[in-house]
């Protein structure tokens, strides 16, 4: 009976994890739809612009992919180890030992599952950016926010005031300021928005650094 209760608790934990992931995805989609109502009209990009845009907004690099695979495989290996112990405890051991091993199995299995979800989401985003429909609009940044570290947000003028978009590259805010606060607003197929410097401004900045 005690073992059955533990199994039910673990099942409940996993149900909460899956429910939370779905709720966050739904909220993200709803926020994106609300944002779309407030932005200027967008236009399609050409291939030269796609190459430049993907260079600046694609965050899922080979290094991150390798790191996530390492996290997934490491946690799967630990999960299998604790899972095997839990099976042995279920057959030969005590209820407390079984519960402890089952709990660790669930924790490390959950970490592996979450890391895999993140890897798949990043991979799908990269594919859509590199192969899907991308739209652009040259906008004026009215104000800048500095949340911390290398993160910057740009407040752009839309149908309603105060639309805040994350600036995708660390030095992007400085390049935009030097470009009379002009920037390129990008929208991908998922309805995600990015703010990056104009191609001309980025090239000019690269020449100055050289």
UniProtKB/TrEMBL annotation:
Keywords: Membrane, Transmembrane, Transmembrane helix. The chain crosses the membrane at residues 6-24, 66-85, 97-118. This is Uncharacterized protein. It comes from Maccoyibacter intestinihominis. The lineage of its organism: Bacteria, Bacillati, Bacillota, Clostridia, Lachnospirales.
């Amino acid at each position: 009976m005690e073992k059955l209760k533990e199994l039910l608790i673990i099942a409940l934990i996993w149900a909460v994890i899956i429910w939370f992931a779905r709720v966050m995805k739904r909220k993200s989609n709803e926020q994106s739809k609300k944002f779309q109502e407030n932005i200027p009209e967008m236009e399609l990009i050409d291939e030269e612009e796609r190459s430049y845009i993907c260079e600046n907004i694609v965050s899922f690099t080979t290094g991150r992919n390798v790191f996530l695979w390492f996290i997934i495989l490491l946690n799967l290996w630990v999960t299998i180890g604790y899972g095997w112990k839990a099976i042995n405890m279920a057959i030969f051991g005590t209820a407390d030992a079984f519960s402890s091993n089952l709990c660790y199995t669930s924790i490390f299995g959950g970490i592996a599952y979450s890391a895999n979800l993140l890897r798949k989401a990043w991979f799908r985003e990269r594919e859509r950016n590199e192969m899907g429909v991308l739209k652009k609009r040259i906008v004026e940044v009215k104000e800048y926010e500095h949340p911390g570290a290398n993160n910057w947000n740009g407040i752009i003028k839309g149908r309603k005031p105060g639309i805040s978009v994350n600036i995708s590259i660390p030095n992007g805010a400085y390049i935009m300021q030097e470009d009379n606060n002009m920037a390129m607003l990008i929208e991908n197929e998922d309805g995600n928005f990015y703010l990056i410097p104009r191609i001309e401004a980025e090239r000019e900045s690269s020449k100055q650094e050289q």
